[in-house]
Amino acid sequence: MKIGIFDSGLGGLILLKSIRQQLPDYDYVFIGDTANMPYGNKSREEVLSAVKKCIDFLIDKECELIILACNTVSAEALRKLQDSYLADNYPDKRVLGVIVPTVEEIARDEDIKRLGIIATPRTVDSQVYIHKLAELRPDIIVYQNAATDLAFQIENDNQEKISRLVGEYLEPLIAEEIDALVLGSTHYVLAKDIIESYLPKDIKIISQDNIIPQKIKLYLDNHPEIESRLSRKGDYQLYVTKSNAIYEKLNSEWFGGGQLHEIKL
Ligand code: DGL
């Protein structure tokens, strides 16, 4: 059995890269629902219905554990999936999101008092980061900004627009004198260098490629009943619902050019 990684696109691919660096022995199946991206500008119902198809696909591909490497889906659909869809259809499978592990890491950092978050409109509207942080660190003041078009421009590798948008979206957060900035969409990990170039040096960047791999490792250490069912051939398969040249390029740069398929769901 394998580990499934879901995202609307490139954010999940860069998380898969960092997860494989830390946990290279397991077998992975990635699905990027590129035909439906950006998820962050869709309604909650649309997000839920799109992600269910991807979960069915990953389970059909023998995934035992699925990582929703997408903040938007973790914010808007994870709880519903766990409480009803999974429980009704695949009670022995596990689906994990990326927001709670990220919030746990933020909460451990005593130096953070003023936190900025850029995320998709859906994630910002859900207020999940604010609610979860309030449970662990009510002293942290949170400032959010919806980066409406950023994930889409990253997916399309439009460097000029990415740079302009990053400046626009960060400006109000920097003005609030934040101590740390959460990249609240996995897509933004791909723009980390540009984001760094706009941020004053004393503002920490909280990036999920540095957090999620170790959290998965911890989860597997704590759940031997799941870990023991995972196969270990160091294999991976990549699927997208609409192909785009950047996937071919990153597949060879990051993974050595293995299997990449376009599928219809
Ligand atoms: N990567 C997704 C996230 O972390 C968002 C991209 C999208 O809007 O599709 O929120």
Automatic annotation (TrEMBL):
Substrate binds at residues 7-8, 39-40, 71-72, 186-187. GO terms for molecular function: glutamate racemase activity. Keywords: Cell shape, Cell wall biogenesis/degradation, Isomerase, Peptidoglycan synthesis. Pathway: Cell wall biogenesis; peptidoglycan biosynthesis. The active site is at residue 70. Gene3D superfamilies: 3.40.50.1860. Provides the (R)-glutamate required for cell wall biosynthesis. Belongs to the aspartate/glutamate racemases family. This is Glutamate racemase. The gene is murI.
